[in-house]
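INTERNAL AUDIT FORM
Audit reference: QA-55
Scope: verify that the stored structure record matches its stored sequence.
Auditor: D.O.
Record contents follow.
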Amino acid sequence: MENQNRNTEKQIKNNTPDTARNGSISQNAIRKGLTIAVTIFAVLLIICVALIFVVSKKIESLAGADAQIKLSAQGGFSCEYSEAQKLYPYGDGVIKVTSERIAYLTLSGSEVFSHTVSYQNPQCVVYGDYVAVFDRDGYNFTVLDQNGVWYSKPMADAVKAVTLSDNGFAAVISGNNDSFGEVSLFDRAGNELAVWTSYNSGFPVCCTFNGDSTKLAVSTVNTNGAVIIPYVRVFSITPNDKGYNVADYAVYTTEDSIIFASLCYVGDKLCCFTSNSLYEVKDENLSKINFDFSAIGYVKNVGGNLFITYSDGINQLNKLAVINSSDTLIYDSNIGSSIVCVCQNKGFYAISVDRRVFIFNTKGIITNDYSVDEDIIRMNFLSDNKLCVVSTGGVHTVN
């Protein structure tokens, strides 16, 4: 019996190392499995965080607003919708334009000055420190600033459009029975500096001045032939003892059958826009820049960068593209369904879309995002960088 117990004990002792070895192998396998699982989880977590960051950047403009603003609670004054349609933010207040009067009002609604007119279809153009009000297809236009009316001019032919410069010059496009149309240039005092009549270049479409008002570019379109031929004529404006000398500077065209609907100077570079493309004057030639814009909306020069709203087609989301002076796309993102208006000053760009107001700096970075409770009609920056908003309920300011 004692021998049998010793044999059993010996057998148990002989079996113990095998059992411990098997347990150690199982624990090592579990540790390796856990290590692999944790590593995979960590990698997946990093990938998810990266994807969330990238996607959030892409849909940043469609995310929730940073602030909800009740416009009626902001500074300004209330008015009826019909009255609000006549108001244009400008200076430190608003310009009120009717068929009978042009008035400058403070943000409390008090009238600073007014000027009597008789316009059938008054249109208002606000550009920097200056304002032009003209009678579309009528025969008069008026230029003013915050201090009062500079001049009011009658025209021999129907006025189609008025463009202002940083120095207060005015370029007036008008019709003409004996030609395709005319462009008249006026200085700050209302003196007519020159009149260019288009006999061969086609109908004048739009004008723009460069930054120091030494050049005036005019887009025309000739439709007499089998195909449309666009021209961009540039005139130089140089001071002399008697005032200013206006002369032909350059003429540009392209073989593409297009219409340059808007022009814009970025520094000394002239940019020309069709409904879906951008052309630039480079090496004395008009060249197409390789950007895909299916339908261009608004074009603004903000601190030397081009801010362009566009969409990829009907019922598509509107987008905002920002192109720097080197023709590099530095921002391109969805912005919303329905763009109401845009405005800019030297340092900021504001866009109203879908009851949202986005504020961008010159680099295309969103600095503010507001959700508003009223439909916006138009807006503009005031002289102290406040945003003046004309809504269906009145005039309001946003800091």
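Auditor finding: record pair retrieved intact. DSSP finds two helices and 33 strands in the chain.
Action required: none
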